[in-house]
Amino acid sequence: MSRFLAPIHTWLFNKIKLYEALEKDVIDNLNSNLKTGILDILGDIENRYPSPLDDTPLEEVIDLTNIHGWLQNRIRIAETRQAYLITKVVEKFGDEGFNLVKQAYIEQGKAAGCDAAEKYSVSTPEDLFKALNNYILEGMPCDNANSIMRSEEDIIEWRTVTDLHKDYWETVGGDAANFYELRRNWVESFIESANPEFKYSFEVKYLNDVKEYLHAIVKK
User: Fold this and answer.
1) Alpha carbon 97 to chain centroid, angstroms
2) How far is Cα 114 from Cα 37, in angstroms, rounded to an integer?
3) Whole-angstrom Cα distance, residue 97 to residue 90?
4) Spacing of C-alpha 159 from chain mean position
5) Mean pLDDT of the chain
6) Most exposed of 23, 61, 115, 176 (fewest Cβ within 10 Å)?
């Protein structure tokens, strides 16, 4: 990334903010449905991590002398905050808490899918894959976390070649499997809302003891 702001920086900034909005959605759903509050967890988060971004425009908040580093740090903050929140909710409330988190993920995925259907072409698997990546936070563009394995008229398949999320979860004593379960629900909801003619599938496989994440968008 350059030393000057470009559309790709705004694109990534917006994805970071969407992920931070998901944290708020999760908190709101937990507060609305749990009999016991989560003030203790929220207090810990605010003591441990910097706050989410506010509505200040990117050009006014970013460090122009270190654009790449600033964006990378904001990804780290957003991912670690949410990993800590969900890990502590699962520890305290078990399946009840996790299912409420999942509801928030599904609802945001649905809203993002509807938004994508209005803004982008979503008529083919490749269209949907490109649209999806305008919303989900998957590291920096230079990380190249995903690799397309197959792209045809009725299907696109890709694999995650670099797990960019595991370390955030392990840092807080959490299980990254929870993240991938939540992400699966988010993407399923996104695809269904963007174009109901298609569906998303996700599978974890092991190749020589190395975990692989395999994804597909396929016509029903």
Assistant:
1) 19
2) 32
3) 6
4) 16
5) 95
6) 61
* Mean pLDDT along residues 50-79: 96
**The two three-digit tokens of residue 3, written as one number:** 């030393």
Q: Give the best-scoring range by mean pLDDT among 134-143, 168-177, 198-207.
A: 168-177
Q: What is the pLDDT of residue 199?
A: 98
How many residues are present in the chain? Answer: 220
Superfamily of domain 7-219: Trafficking protein particle complex subunit 3 (3.30.1380.20)
pLDDT of 3 reads: 65
DSSP string, 9-57: HHHHHHHHHHHHHHHHHHHHHHHHH-SS--HHHHHHHHHHSPPPP-S--
Q: Please give the full DSSP string across the chain, using - where no structure is assigned.
A: --SS--HHHHHHHHHHHHHHHHHHHHHHHHHHH-SS--HHHHHHHHHHSPPPP-S--HHHHS-TT-HHHHHHHHHHHHHHHHHHHHHHHHHHHHHHHHHHHHHHHHHHHHHHHHHHHHHS--SSHHHHHHHHTTTS--S-GGG--EEEEEE-SSEEEEEESS-SSHHHHHHTT--HHHHHHHHHHHHHHHHHHH-TTEEEEEEEEEETTEEEEEEEEEE-
The string over 69-87, giving b where at least 16 C-beta atoms fall within 10 Å of a residue's C-beta and e elsewhere, is ebbbebbebbbbbbbbbbb
Q: Rounded CA gap, 104 and 4, in Å?
A: 35
pLDDT at 187: 99
**Cα separation, 142 vs 145, whole angstroms:** 8
